């Protein structure tokens, strides 16, 4: 027992000596560890003060950064804006104007093809040569020749007895009968001539037939141009323009329907000619959009058209107003859409190669378009490109430029589509203010980054340590 007490006393005394030794060592080395403790406290306090700036509204952007963003600022002014709906469409041929079918006037065999696919021809130029096999056409030529010869014989007889009738040797009624026969023959001759003209024979060939030289082959020529007999203003004669000069009316052979040596029947399609000067834009809309399209058609509102894959740099501007001509009254059973049609006047160029003239059209049937149909008018509003607006929850912002500084301003959006945003003129943006026309999302990210760094873009710090707000 006595030994245990001695051991406890010795242990307690050793601990006291150890604590005293640590205290003496800390007191002796305080010049080393005390500055380190103060530095940590100062660093902690500095970090506590470098908190992000709340509700930052101004950012600073260098001229180089603006060039990298291709940032442009323009003054905004109140204006009138039309809200539109987007409707897909396609460029199509205009029936009766853009395509022409050429048919055979009689039964025959194709002995020569003068114009092939891609070639250009003018009205009256030869397309095919046919060797006639038509019994009807041969009979018509024979009847014409007989009628002409019979008329000549009647006239000779009348001339022979005209003197006798004058002297009273024969009755004057004989002259009257001969005159009536001549008039009947003239009627028959006129009918035969007209029939041969409709069969494709030229007037010179008909004169040969009347003299006894029958035609065994005929040339099929390009038809005359289509004229607007109704004078509605949107239908024009087919033509093309090269370098701003009006050229002769011309067709392009779009497709050959027969081969060389093929026998054809009367009325059979030989080829298809095309001239894409007058086309249609065919829009495809849903039934619920019909009232808005009907209103646009009734009031003649202008429609904006975006042509897919249009090379506008190498063509002159399309200086025409696009308006709905008519709406279809049927609905496609597969797509559940109905069509509406907008007249389109095309542009073209021509070039020469190997003695042939070829045409290049700016717009082609089958080309896709996007139609912007006006449906509602906004007055006294601000209009900006869609990229000039940034949204954060229910808030919408634009950026006003003041030198290198950009102020973020909250705005009220009345309408927004793929291209533009419409802002209310409620005083949040003063008319004439220079607003950024794009890159709003990038500007907003820069604003957040600058606010997170703890350096306010709207505060200037001078060399003497004084600060003031940006101006």
Describe the structure.
- With 471 residues, the protein is α+β, with helices and mostly antiparallel strands.
- It folds into 3 domains: 2-49; 58-80 and 379-469, conserved putative lor/sdh protein from methanococcus maripaludis s2 fold, CATH 2.40.420.20; 99-269, no CATH class.
- It contains 8 helices and 28 strands.
- Strands 3, 14, 15, 16, 17, 20, 24 and 25 form an 8-stranded antiparallel beta sheet that branches. A 4-stranded antiparallel beta sheet has the order 1-23-22-21, covered by helices on one side.
- A hairpin with a 5-residue loop joins strand 27 and strand 28.
- Helix 4 (135-167) runs antiparallel to helix 5.
- The longest helix is centred in the first third of the chain and has 33 residues, at 135-167.
- It is elongated, with a radius of gyration of 46 Å.
- The chain starts with a helix and ends with a strand.
- Residues 44-53, 229-246 and 459-469 have low confidence and may be disordered.
In brief, what are we looking at here?
This protein is of the alpha+beta class.
Structural class: alpha+beta
Summarize the biggest pleated sheet.
8 strands, antiparallel
Shape estimate: elongated
Low-confidence stretches: 44-53, 229-246, 459-469
Gap from first CA to last CA: 89 Å
What does the secondary structure layout of this molecule look like, with pairings?
Blueprint: H1 2-28, H2 30-49, E1 58-60, H3 63-68, E2 73-75, E3 79-93, E4 99-103, E5 108-113, E6 120-121, E7 126-132, H4 135-167, H5 173-198, H6 203-210, E8 217-221, E9 241-242, E10 245-246, E11 251-256, E12 263-264, E13 269-274, E14 278-286, H7 290-299, E15 304-307, E16 326-327, E17 337-345, E18 348-353, E19 356-361, E20 368-385, E21 390-392, E22 395-402, E23 405-410, E24 413-416, E25 420-424, E26 434-436, H8 440-452, E27 459-461, E28 467-469
Antiparallel strand pairs: 1-23, 2-26, 3-14, 3-20, 4-13, 5-7, 5-12, 6-11, 7-8, 9-10, 11-13, 14-17, 15-20, 16-17, 18-19, 20-25, 21-22, 22-23, 24-25, 27-28
């Amino acid at each position: 027992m006595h030994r245990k007490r001695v051991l406890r006393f010795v242990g307690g005394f050793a601990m006291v000596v150890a604590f005293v030794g640590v205290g003496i060592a800390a007191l002796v080395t305080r010049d080393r560890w005390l500055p380190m403790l103060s530095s940590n406290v100062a660093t902690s306090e500095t970090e506590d003060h470098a908190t992000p700036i709340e509700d930052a509204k101004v950012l600073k952007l260098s001229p180089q950064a603006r060039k990298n963003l291709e940032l442009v600022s323009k003054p905004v002014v109140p204006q009138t804006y039309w809200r539109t709906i987007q409707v897909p469409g396609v460029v199509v041929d205009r029936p009766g104007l853009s395509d022409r079918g050429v048919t055979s006037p009689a039964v025959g065999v194709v002995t020569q093809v003068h114009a092939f696919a891609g070639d250009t021809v003018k009205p009256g130029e030869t397309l095919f040569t046919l060797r006639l096999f038509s019994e009807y056409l041969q009979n018509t030529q024979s009847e014409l020749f007989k009628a002409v010869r019979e008329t000549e014989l009647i006239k000779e007889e009348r001339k022979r007895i005209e003197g006798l009738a004058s002297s009273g040797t024969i009755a004057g009624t004989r002259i009257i009968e001969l005159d009536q026969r001549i008039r009947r023959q003239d009627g028959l001759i006129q009918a035969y001539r007209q029939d041969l003209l409709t069969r494709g024979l030229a007037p010179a060939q008909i004169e040969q037939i009347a003299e006894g030289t029958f035609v065994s082959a005929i040339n099929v020529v390009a038809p005359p141009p289509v004229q607007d007999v109704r004078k509605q203003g949107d239908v024009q004669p087919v033509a093309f323009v090269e370098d701003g000069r009006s050229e002769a009316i011309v067709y392009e052979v779009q497709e050959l329907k027969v081969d060389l040596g093929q026998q054809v029947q009367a009325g059979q399609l030989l080829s298809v000619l095309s001239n894409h000067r007058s086309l249609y834009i065919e829009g495809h809309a849903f039934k619920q959009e019909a009232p808005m399209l009907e209103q646009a058609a009734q009031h003649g509102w202008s429609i904006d058209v975006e042509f897919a894959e249009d090379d506008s740099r190498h063509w002159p501007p399309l200086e025409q107003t696009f308006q709905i001509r008519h709406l279809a009254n049927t609905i496609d059973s597969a797509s559940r859409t109905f069509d509406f049609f907008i007249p389109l006047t095309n542009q073209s160029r021509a070039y020469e190669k190997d003695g042939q003239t070829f045409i290049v059209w700016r717009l082609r049937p089958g080309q896709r378009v996007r139609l912007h149909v006006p449906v509602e008018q906004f007055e006294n509003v601000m209009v900006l490109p869609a990229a000039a607006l940034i949204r954060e929850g229910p808030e919408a912002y634009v950026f006003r430029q003041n030198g290198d500084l950009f102020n973020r301003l909250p705005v009220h959006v009345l309408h927004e589509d793929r291209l533009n945003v419409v802002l209310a003129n409620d005083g949040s943006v003063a008319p004439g203010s220079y607003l950024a026309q794009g890159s709003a999302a990038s500007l907003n990210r820069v604003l957040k980054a600058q606010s997170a760094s703890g350096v306010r873009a709207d505060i200037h710090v001078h060399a003497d340590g004084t600060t003031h707000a940006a101006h």
